[in-house]
């Protein structure tokens, strides 16, 4: 069926027309064109408006994100988790949000802390052994597996006794939840200087050893600044710090000085593409300007087993904004996830977590609606 021969609305079943109307409402809310929304959406509304895929062709292409690997970081739906249950009929609190995500089809989640609204079942904070047992019961009940948490990583170095005790409690909670990984939403350090990354490696190696003894892989999450160029050479500034770069990127230097058995990574694929857009030039030791375009896929393929987790966050290209992209629901942007996932050497190893920082909105149901749209698009990826 060609687009010009699509069935008229009055020839379509009622439920298909309802899906089309929902898709059109969502399109207006997100500010997307029909082309962008329908090309990325795999629901009934899209099927009614665009040609159906040929079954034979679809059958020859492998699913890029298997059902059991489709995950979401709960930061995406933080508004639902922290909203007062008395204020809305939409799901609120951990229990009801986990139930809703399971109904959508997600089978993995990543926590972003353990706080919810005080009126939700279990109370405001589940950051305790008792709270973790409650969460684990809900995860099991809804067929979900928790893969990680953006939680406590000590800022001090050397470690204080208080920080070490808190870190060990975080590991105990992680074990109750069944986490294979525990980490942070921050880069190892925000510094541009080699000496600070050396210190960060000492700290992360030490913490990674403690985590390994607890049966957990420690990971750090990246933003675009982590893939800017390291200042490690050239004439010193007034404080004796280097002002130029040998051309190595900060996090790639950290790969080499952190222990691959102890320190792991979660690439945020959106922020890695922002780095590709922003961090292209550096001043070499001789003062000359050099260009080097970052390739996120090449970085991952060089040491895939150090990337057990991904943030699958999409972006629509927009050169008018500093980052070069606007965050959009997964599958509605310009980041080539089909290429990225299809070229991994160990596709069954990684755990991609859909994330969208700006999913919450005035509509209390919006972040869960976008989670559903993004799930469908993730499930539709073939390669």
UniProtKB/TrEMBL annotation:
<dbReference type="InterPro" id="IPR050312">
    <property type="entry name" value="IolE/XylAMocC-like"/>
</dbReference>
<feature type="domain" description="Xylose isomerase-like TIM barrel">
    <location>
        <begin position="98"/>
        <end position="354"/>
    </location>
</feature>
<dbReference type="GO" id="GO:0016853">
    <property type="term" value="F:isomerase activity"/>
</dbReference>
<protein>
    <submittedName>
        <fullName>Sugar phosphate isomerase/epimerase</fullName>
    </submittedName>
</protein>
<dbReference type="InterPro" id="IPR013022">
    <property type="entry name" value="Xyl_isomerase-like_TIM-brl"/>
</dbReference>
<dbReference type="InterPro" id="IPR006311">
    <property type="entry name" value="TAT_signal"/>
</dbReference>
<keyword id="KW-0413">Isomerase</keyword>
<dbReference type="InterPro" id="IPR036237">
    <property type="entry name" value="Xyl_isomerase-like_sf"/>
</dbReference>
<dbReference type="Pfam" id="PF01261">
    <property type="entry name" value="AP_endonuc_2"/>
</dbReference>
